[in-house]
Structure formats: C-alpha cells, structure tokens
C-alpha cells in the first residue's frame, strides 16, 4: 500500500528562535501528483514530513495524487531567506523512524518563492531518486487573517446515490475553500459513515479561518464521496455555499442539493444525487481581542470544583459527581467545554486545580481551598486532561462535606493577579458548583476587591438547585457592592448548565452552547481592565511563572 505522508523541513539560514518580528503568518497547503508507486499490490500511502521539523501531514491511503488536509502555519519574514524542504514517504508501518519507510522524493524552495508565485501557488518536480521521475509537488501559501473564531458543525445527508453493488454507500464529505485564482484548497474531511444513504456525520470543531480565512462570503465547496477500500472513491456529487449561508444553521431553507455534473449533463430528468444539510452549527466563542491574539497577554486559567455533600454520594448514579463509564458528568462537561477554549491562550498549559467543601485525608479536616492533585506546593495539572484526572482521583480520596464557600478560592487567584497588573497576565477562575452559597458577604467583598485586578470569574451552576444568589453575583443588572463599595467593573459571569443541555442527548452540542455563553463576557471584561489602566499593546511577555509560595490550605 502506498500510504504517503509529507515531512516539511526548514534548512539554511532561517532561525525561528532569533528572527525578527514576522510581517505576517502564512498557511502552507501541500498536494502531490503522479507519485512513484512503491507498493506491489496497491498504490502508495503518501505522507509528508518537515525538518526543523515544522510538522508532518496525515497519511493518505492508496493514492498517487494526495491532497493533504493538514496545514503548516509559518511566520513569514519578507526580509529573510526562509529555506524549506519537503520530504515525501510511503508509509509501511506505524514507526516514526523515517528509515522504516520508502522515500518517494524531495523538493526544496524558499517561502518567498511560494508567496511570490502566481496566485502564491508553486509547482515543482520532486527529485532525490536517481533515474526516476518522482512526480510533482504543489505548494500553496495564503496569508492568514486575525480571525480566531471557531465553529462547531455537524451535517446529515438524505437519499444519497447508491454506489455499492452489495450494499448502499459509505459516504464522507470533503470541504474546500475557494482561492482568488479560481482553484480550491482542501480544508476538512469527515469520517466515513458505513452502509447508509442517510448519513449523520459526527460533529466537529473547525477554525473559521480554515473554512474561509475570515471572509464570510467566500465560496466553500463540499464534495460527497462513497468510500472504497482501494482508494478509488466514487464521486456522488457536490454543492457550494459560504460560511454566511451555513451560519443560518438548521432549517428547511438551508438544505443543499448534491449534484453530479456528469449525470446532470446526460440525464434530462436528473434532479440531484441526494441532499445535505447542517444539523448543528454553533459559532464557538473565542477570546478574540487585539491584545490576546497578538500573544501579548498570557491567560492564566484556574479551576475550582464544589465538593460539598449536597452533590450526593459519588458512588450513586443520582450524584452530580457520579463517574459513569459511558458519559461525562455535569462537572466534567462544564470543565471540558470551558477549559478546552481557554487553554488555547495559556502557553504552558499548566492549570491550578482546586477543590472546596470537602474533608481531607488523613485527619478529616474541612478545607475550602485544596489542591486536586494532592500537592499544595504545586497544584498545577498538565492540560485539561490533567485537571480531569486530578478531579476523578480527588473523588476517590476526599469526603464530601460543606459548607459552600467561594471566597477562599477567589482570594487565592486574586493574590496572584495582584502581583501582575501591567497587562501581561490575565487570570480567569472557573467555579463549578451545585448549590446555594454559604459565605455570601465574604464572597461579595472578595469580588469587589478583585474587580480592580486583571481577573474574571466564571461560575457554572450544575444540578436542579435555585441559583438566585449567583445571579446577584453576576452583576449584569445591579453592580455588586460590599460595605458601601461598588465593584470597579463587572468581572463575574454566571450560567446554569441545565439551560444548555441538548434534549436529544448530544453532549457535544451541550458543551458548545455552554462554552459560547459562558465566555461571552470575558473579552469585554479583559479590555475594560486594559482601558481603565491605559494599557496598550506591548512586546509579548515570557510565560507566567507563579510566585514560589505553597498553597495555603484554608480550614
């Protein structure tokens, strides 16, 4: 089998660690044509690698003409020579060692050559194997916009053409964005849904930049294929749309006819080869502000989870902390939904994870500020998955108790925020809770004190309880106050998770809806802090290093 992948290597005098400020970022897309066939009983499985190593593409099975979906994002320096090398291999095993795979060819160029080519599209012959014609490589470059939005999408098909002799069809979708020269660049492939003419493809999250580079009216072409094991996938049909049209979401007016031009030209009564429509389309919120996406402000994310007894016994299915082997509980869904977006803005992906309202081993002391990983000197967890693991482990070791006190975890984050007020750091605290707050007066005072600091507080309420007090903390209608002092700015966003649960049980949709609303106020809160302090864009800071003080467990 010819499973090729591409390795993109940078060589020569370009040093990305010491280069000057880039003029722009460019996205590199790679295709190949007429590759060498190294496999005896099938075609090659090409994949590409990149040296300094910028990256590898995916492996595409059984094709000599691959269009790689995976992109390379490079900083482009007009004044520097940036040498690139593309190495192509036929993958014969899962080994990461290149010597274990068949070499298919190599091409070198500069990034300037690609950008300066007509339509920023360069085509070169592959070489590196004496006496062999290795095919060609096509490299496209496109300057990226500052669009940092993402969208959650899901599509379904209806009455697609039957292509398989002994079955129905195994359909999948391929997405392309249009280029100025009339060509199209591949940007996404769905999974294959086996043996159906009415497929429902899995929901997926994709950057809007990948679909249309921030131009909502740019043409998006979607092709529908029937998957075949030998790689000669059967074309079912295609349709064109735009992100603006797709954004209308699911409706009777947003259904696309899948048309096969060859069939249409031959058959007078031909109508279509089925239809495809978006069944989910949610504009996923991201923290897009000029300061954030220039990388000039580091977002520091902290999680605090409610371990009070009102959540119920974690061993019982009725508990909000119950760990089902089949699905995430409400706490885990809220944490994952918000955390996976926030973590994109945290360079080291190390997150403090705290708990409150539990009795801790070995002596049963009640704590309202304890490290989920059991290490008060270093409560940091590696990524959202690390936080999830620490949360699950804590459920096995602590005893749920009470009361529900927020002020200790708010004060914990505020201490760090108070040490960095120059705009280089911004702190976001996510509190996930099930019940009525016990220390309302102290929490209001903590929020008022924190309102002059570079921080925001997100509160997600889980379970059926009434959350009237949380609405008061949100401060959207009446600015929160304590002892006659009003909060300098609104820094709290509260949402009840139950309002976002999809009735059909689609947890991906529930999480996307939650993340969109729960993060909606953060950019304005962030910018309001910058404006009130007169802070303007400045050089990017180093990653945040927290003060070397241990976590003080609050009793």
TrEMBL record:
Record-annotated membrane-spanning stretches: none
Keyword set, alphabetical order: Calcium, Metal-binding, Repeat
Residue span(s) of domain C2: 1-126, 133-256
Origin: domain of life: Eukaryota
Gene3D superfamilies named among the record's database cross-references: C2 domain
A Gene Ontology BP annotation from the UniProt entry: cellular response to calcium ion
Signal peptide positions on this chain: none
Residue ranges of the region described as Disordered: 536-555
Matching CDD domains: C2A_Copine, C2B_Copine, vWA_copine_like
Location of the VWFA domain: 300-504
Entry similarity comment: Belongs to the copine family.
Name by which UniProt lists this protein: Copine 8
Organism of this sequence: Myripristis murdjan (pinecone soldierfish)
Gene name of this polypeptide: CPNE8
């Amino acid at each position: 089998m010819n499973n090729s992948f591409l390795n993109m290597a940078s060589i020569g005098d370009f040093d990305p660690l010491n280069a000057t400020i880039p003029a722009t970022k460019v996205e590199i897309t790679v295709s190949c044509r007429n590759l060498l066939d190294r496999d005896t009983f099938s075609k090659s499985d090409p994949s590409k690698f990149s040296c300094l190593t910028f990256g590898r593409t995916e492996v595409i099975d059984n094709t000599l003409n691959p269009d790689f979906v995976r992109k390379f994002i490079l900083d482009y320096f007009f004044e520097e020579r940036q040498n690139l090398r593309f190495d192509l291999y036929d993958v014969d095993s899962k080994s990461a060692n290149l010597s274990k795979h068949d070499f298919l060819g190599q091409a070198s160029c500069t990034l300037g050559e690609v950008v300066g080519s007509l339509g920023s599209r360069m085509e070169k012959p592959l070489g590196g194997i004496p006496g062999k014609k290795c095919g060609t490589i096509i490299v496209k470059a496109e300057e990226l916009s500052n669009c940092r939005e993402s969208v959650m999408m899901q599509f379904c098909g209806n009455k697609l053409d039957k292509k398989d002799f002994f079955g129905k069809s195994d359909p999948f979708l391929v997405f392309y964005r249009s280029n100025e020269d009339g060509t199209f660049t591949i940007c996404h492939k769905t999974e294959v849904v086996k043996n159906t003419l009415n497929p429902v493809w899995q929901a997926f999250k994709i950057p809007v930049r990948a679909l249309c580079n921030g131009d909502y009216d740019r043409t998006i072409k979607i092709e529908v294929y029937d998957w075949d094991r030998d790689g000669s996938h059967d074309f079912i049909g295609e349709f064109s749309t735009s992100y603006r049209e797709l954004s209308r979401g699911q409706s009777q007016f947003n259904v696309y006819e899948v048309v096969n031009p060859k069939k249409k030209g031959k058959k007078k009564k031909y109508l279509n080869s089925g239809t495809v429509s978006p069944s989910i389309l949610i504009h996923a919120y991201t923290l897009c502000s000029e300061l954030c996406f220039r990388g000039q402000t580091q977002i520091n994310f902290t999680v605090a989870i409610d371990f009070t007894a009102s959540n119920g016994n974690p061993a019982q299915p009725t508990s909000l902390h119950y760990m089902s082997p089949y699905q995430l509980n409400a706490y885990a869904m809220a944490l994952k939904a918000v955390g996976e977006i926030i973590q994109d803005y945290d360079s080291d992906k190390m997150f403090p994870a705290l708990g409150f309202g539990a009795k801790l081993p070995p002596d049963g002391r009640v704590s309202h500020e304890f490290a989920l990983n059991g290490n008060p000197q270093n409560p940091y967890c590696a990524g959202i998955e690390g936080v999830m693991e620490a949360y699950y482990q804590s459920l096995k070791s602590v005893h749920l108790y009470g009361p529900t006190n927020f002020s200790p975890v708010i004060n914990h984050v505020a201490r760090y925020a108070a040490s960095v007020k120059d705009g280089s750091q911004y702190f976001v605290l996510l509190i996930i809770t099930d019940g009525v707050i016990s220390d309302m007066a102290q929490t209001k005072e903590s929020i008022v004190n924190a309102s002059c600091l570079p921080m925001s507080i997100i509160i997600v309420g889980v379970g059926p309880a009434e959350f009237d007090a949380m609405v008061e903390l949100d401060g959207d209608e009446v600015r929160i106050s304590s002892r006659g002092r009003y909060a300098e700015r609104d820094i709290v966003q509260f949402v009840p998770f139950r309002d976002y649960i999809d009735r059909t049980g689609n947890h991906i949709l529930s999480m996307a809806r939650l993340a969109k609303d729960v993060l909606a106020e953060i950019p304005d809160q962030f910018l309001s802090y910058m404006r009130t302090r007169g802070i303007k864009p400045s050089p990017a800071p180093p990653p945040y290093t927290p003060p070397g003080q241990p976590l003080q467990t609050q009793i």
